[in-house]
Design brief:
The chain starts with a helix and ends with a strand. The chain is 73% helix and 8% strand. It has a two-stranded antiparallel ribbon with strand order 1-2. A two-stranded antiparallel sheet has the order 3-4. The protein has two domains: 30-145, Tetratricopeptide repeat domain (Serine Threonine Protein Phosphatase 5, Tetratricopeptide repeat), CATH 1.25.40; 169-274. α7 (169-201) runs antiparallel to α8 (213-248). The chain has helices at residues 3-33, 36-53, 57-71, 75-87, 90-100, 109-153, 169-201, 213-248; strands at residues 203-204, 207-208, 255-263, 266-274. It is mainly α.
């Protein structure tokens, strides 16, 4: 290599080094001119960009919002809208894009406006879904309230009525007692007839010997006993019949009466009633 070529190479390298030094110096000077808020905004932008790339959209939103508050650079609104859309905050994304649109470059305005249209349609779909859910919930609440009101108005179920048959025990007892008295009257009546036959054997043409006095007294006593038993038995039987009819026709108009008459020649039972 000739001496001229070496000189030219050294000059070229010197020029490159000088240019790099100038760029570094300009960058250092520009950094020194940044305010503390601008430097913090740059740090927050870097943090937000990393969070967005790793899917931590809420953290990215917080970083971009604070960075925009400190620097008010419009491009941060675009980044903020991206994070809000990914996080599902569609209304916030629409608001951020609307604020960014006036600052967008002319070449990207059509794209931003198309994106706004799509986001607004998604917001409208969410609104319709929420309205349908509210209407369904309100209808269910109204149906539940109507059901509760109907249940409150409905009468409580009553216990089934216990149907009981008529109480026939008193009538049965009285009828049984009356039957027993009538049987006893038949027995004493038979004994009285036997005593009367015995007394008749000692009597001729109405004249009775001394032997007839005993049978005659027995006949008289048994006849009285028979009458009393018969009348009492008939009365008991009549009362038993009355109680039986009354028990069977309980709840209906019932009028009945039983009369007993006893005389020297016997007795009688009178039962009157309307059932």
């Amino acid at each position: 290599m000739g001496g001229g070529a070496v000189i030219r190479a050294i000059a070229y390298l010197s020029l490159v080094a000088l240019l790099l030094a100038s760029v570094s110096t300009a960058e250092a000077q520009r950094r020194r001119r940044l305010s503390p808020d601008e430097r913090r905004a740059r740090e927050l932008f870097t943090l937000g960009d990393e969070s967005y790339a790793n899917g931590r959209y809420d953290a990215a939103i917080a970083a971009f919002e604070e960075a925009y508050r400190l620097s008010e650079r419009p491009l941060l609104l675009f980044n903020l809208a991206n994070a809000q859309e990914r996080a599902g905050y569609l209304r916030d994304a629409v608001s951020s894009l609307e604020r960014y649109l006036p600052h967008a470059r002319r070449s990207e305005r059509d794209e931003v406006e198309s994106r706004l249209v799509a986001l607004r349609e998604r917001v409208a779909e969410e609104d319709r879904a929420e309205a349908a859910a509210r209407a369904e919930a309100e209808a269910a609440a109204e149906a539940e309230a109507a059901s509760a009101a109907q249940a409150a108005r409905a009468p409580e179920p009553s216990e089934p009525a216990v149907v009981r048959g008529p109480d026939l025990l008193p009538a049965s007892l009285v009828l049984g007692g009356g039957g027993a008295l009538i049987i006893a009257a038949a027995v004493t009546g038979g004994l009285a007839l036997r005593a009367r036959d015995t007394a008749s054997a000692h009597c001729v043409d109405g004249l009775c010997s001394v032997e007839a006095e005993g049978p005659l007294a027995t006949d008289e006593a048994l006849s009285i006993t028979t009458d009393v038993l018969a009348v009492t038995g008939l009365a008991a039987a009549g009362l038993g019949i009355y109680l039986l009819v009354d028990a069977l026709s309980r709840g209906e108009s019932t009028e009945a009466s039983v009369d007993v008459a006893i005389g020297p020649n016997g007795g009688a039972l009178f039962a009157r009633g309307r059932f």
